Amino acid sequence: MSNKRPAMELGTVLVVGGCGFVGWHIVNHLLNFPSETDASVALPKPEEDPRFDYPQLAGRYPVCVAKVAVVDLRTSNNRLPGAEYYDGDITSAESMLEVFRKVKPDVVIHTATPNVLEGNKPLLRKVNVDGTKTLLEVAGGARGDWGGKCKAFVYTSSSSVVHDTQSDLINVDEEWPYIRGDRQLEYYSETKADAEELVLKYNRTSPSGMVTCAVRPAGIYGEKDTTFTYKVLEHSSKASPTVLRMQLGDNNNLFDFTYVGNIAYAHLLAAFRLLATKTRIESKQSEPLDHERVDGEAFNITNDAPVYFWDMTRAAWALTGKVVEPHQVWELPEALLGPIGGIAETVMGICGKTPRLTRRTVRYSCMTRYYSCDKAKSRLGYTPIVSVEEGLARAVGYVVERERQEGQKKGHQSNIMEYYAAFNPNPPYMFRRILLLLFWLIALPASTADKPLYGSKEGIPGIDASFDYVVVGGGNAGVTLAARLAEQSFNVALVEAGGFYEINYPPAKVPGAVGIGTGTDPMAIRTPLDWGFLVDTGPGADSRTIHYEKARCLGGASASNFMLYQRPTIGSMKLWADLVDDESYLFDNVFPLFKKTINFTAPNEELRPANATVSYREDAYEKHGQPVDVTYPHAASPFSSWLQLGLESVGVEVTSEFNSGSLLGSFYCPFTLRPADQIRSSSESAFFRSPYSSGYLETLTLYKNTMGKKILFDQKRATGVEVATAGSKYILSAIHEVIISSGAFQSPQLLMVSGIGPTDVLQEHEIDVIVDLPGVGQNLWDHVFSGPTYPVAVETFNKLAMDLQYLISQIREFKSSHTGVLTNHGFDYIAFEKLPGSSRAGFTERTENDLSWFPEDWPEVEYIAAPLFIGNFSDPITMQPQDGRQYASIMPTLVAPTSRGNVSIISADTDDLPVIYMNWLTTETDQQVLVAAFKRVRDIFHSEAMAPIIVGEEFFPGKEYQTDREILEVILDTAMAPWHASGTCKMGTRSDRMAVLDSRARVLGVEKLRVVDASAFPVLPPGHPQSVVYMLAEKIASNIIGYSKDED
């Protein structure tokens, strides 16, 4: 019997969020499934495999007659032929009006929502509630005439709006009340409830009389699903057979899983019925009866076939060959697992991360939750077309075939699952992860604040106070500035959002632990120090949302970075001086300031390996510099000595000039490291915990765990800062100046929320404009890397990351004698070069012109030793291959970038993290240089000098990636930065429209306000900026002190 249904004529349909998971399927359905007729957009499906032999969708669902348009924040991906695409922001009425004027929709289907897993409350509120309100007002004509009238508005809500994430729900209908407030443990669901309520209240009340309804999907899965299906298959690929046999609860809990195609169909039915209602109203026919009404109503959408939770999960595993028979299952009672989940939360909470096993996930796996869709069936005419079983085959088949295709195309991504599943002698994945961190935390000293603070005092939260200077931000620059000013007996308040890293996260002191928490995966391990920034890499790097590590603690970056200490080039500082029209920034003039902070100690040649001899100039350091220690680790990475030989073989010679104004060449890089005990020397530990500091800290008052909320002004003179400690707001007044040192992301944020920045941004958030400075948040520089990995015949980080016995022995050695591999993170050998002529053959004239802007001594590329598998840097601890071999990478890093990003705000509150667009590799120049550097690294690996340790073919991305285009695809998919974000409050001259500061770091257009940190850089010099930040803090401190003395 034919399932063909009458065509649905929908007019012009605008799908909001049409590049997302549900939105894409709605567009596909509206266009009558081009995914089944156009090879360019076909959904991957395993061929000649009976497990995935499912029929086409076309002909089973009704044909649609519609003109289709899509608006999404970014529409570069997930496009379908036949639809029009527009970039737009639903939180901006102007943006939406522009789209509506072009599209003139009869129907709006609103699916847009942030990723619930990101947990960004301000963003969820802004998009789900504020964005929906804006969209309703634009569509209904309340925000102005756009040349048409929208008749019908369908909103994608969620079945979770009536669920508290804890209770069982059995065949629940739409009469259940919303769950809000303390009872709602999932903020996403609360915002969806608020938005749904807005939509339903807006029914028939707009100027155009637009009719509205809401669709509540339950348990969505299907092709392009990145949550349920992908996570279930990811778990099965990583877990051992033993772990797969474990079942949380008794599996008597029924659960709704709804195929996404059925959900798309329900949206179109809702739109179709709303249009019929609108016609009925306009033709003055009788009102729909209550039992047939669609407008102003919400509809549960399910597959109308709830299944047992673990049956669904195991069915997905079985489709990939991971079969768990019923008699093999180990039932783990919920009553036992709940407390275990609580323990896991405590353990992982110490590390700033939520474990996979929590009390909430235990409850989720054991609860019953299914809904009645009788209302949708009777009023919309809804019937699920694709069964649960077919939908699962489609979803799993999509992932399996996509992984296979990616394996052929770029082995680096698709094989990651295989890497995890390879032979591993250690405990299963989740437990290994917890054990690794447990050993770190238990083995390191319990008394972590190893020396007391000398002489300083802590401010009293909640009490207004007055100081000579108020410094907001206790990182490299902030601590240095505050300490130098206190040295001169000024009363200084230092405001820091975090606390002491030695107490909150003791592994931060250990060089070998620096990689923990740095992964790009938003769901990877994070430390308790992490701000939790998620950045958009930009279209040049596949518009990925990644984690970008920044430390929230005293010491800032110096408490979490890789401790590399080298200085910029003479030419780069001349360019700086030229850009700000101030010769005091010439290298010779700032050289004494570079020296001032540093207490250098020569390497211990008795402990350091003989084949890891360092080369340096003693005159690069002051004999009596204070107080930050710089030295070399007792251990050296075995891979680094081979890299030195490989670099020499391609013409990159050893240099000792790296702290004297020249970088071209290779060298073992010194660390900011205490020579005696081989632990980190940060700005906080150096200035606050050394005997050197005892004489001046009496005039420094520390406000830790305190957030700068707003700079206060009298006219255009900064008078102080509103701060908050544990929610209590109070004012710290500044007699002389306010100094902002909150970093490249949050210094511009604090300026903007205080009324200094681009006028349009400030007005959007109803912030009074003090000064219109369009450059605030712009000019974001960063370095970018991506590189290949090879199997090697020397010990690398793989052994430390995956061999627990070895890890334990090294922790013991580090504790007892301050020796062993934990004194070094392995990224200890670096090199800089301008690419040779042979590597530049493919450069365009534009690329060469762009690169000619940089001074002659400014290298284009840095090479960094990385004795581990890098890949996409998703999690450097848990992503390591488990096949028993050792791996090493060389990271070619772009240090003359021409792409620029930006930072903006989402509210007037600094508690809401800023929005960060890195825009890496958006220029042809950057792409060509990094591709050439990638190929150069391969030449180094393939050199005769390194042949003795290379024991196999290229592991990542694989030798099949040879053309520039293929290599670029790998780079765009894996590019990451070494956390050198800078330049967002750049110095400049008054003729530079984008300048924010003058050469003395004073904010233009106001008085008594400075910004001193990496955001102040007019350019990001080549290399690692730690030394430059210290220099800048010393320089501005000297400026302030000299000016104050002149006043006296």
UniProtKB/TrEMBL annotation:
SUPFAM superfamilies: FAD-linked reductases, C-terminal domain, FAD/NAD(P)-binding domain, NAD(P)-binding Rossmann-fold domains. One of its GO terms (cellular component) is endoplasmic reticulum membrane. GO terms for molecular function: 3-beta-hydroxysteroid dehydrogenase [NAD(P)+]/C4-decarboxylase activity; flavin adenine dinucleotide binding. The keyword Signal does not apply. One of its GO terms (biological process) is ergosterol biosynthetic process. The keyword Membrane applies. Keywords: Endoplasmic reticulum, Glycoprotein, Lipid biosynthesis, Lipid metabolism, Membrane, NAD, Oxidoreductase, Steroid biosynthesis. Residues 743-757 form the Glucose-methanol-choline oxidoreductase N-terminal domain. It is a peripheral membrane protein. InterPro entries: 3Beta_OHSteriod_DH/Estase (IPR002225), FAD/NAD-bd_sf (IPR036188), GMC_OxRdtase (IPR012132), GMC_OxRdtase_N (IPR000172), GMC_OxRtase_C (IPR007867), NAD(P)-bd_dom_sf (IPR036291). Transmembrane segments: none annotated. It is found in: Endoplasmic reticulum membrane. Belongs to the 3-beta-HSD family. PANTHER family: DEHYDROGENASE PKFF-RELATED, GLUCOSE-METHANOL-CHOLINE GMC OXIDOREDUCTASE. Heterotetramer of ERG25, ERG26, ERG27 and ERG28. ERG28 acts as a scaffold to tether ERG27 and other 4,4-demethylation-related enzymes, forming a demethylation enzyme complex, in the endoplasmic reticulum. This is Sterol-4-alpha-carboxylate 3-dehydrogenase ERG26, decarboxylating. It comes from Aspergillus parasiticus (strain ATCC 56775 / NRRL 5862 / SRRC 143 / SU-1). The lineage of its organism: Eukaryota, Fungi, Dikarya, Ascomycota, Pezizomycotina.
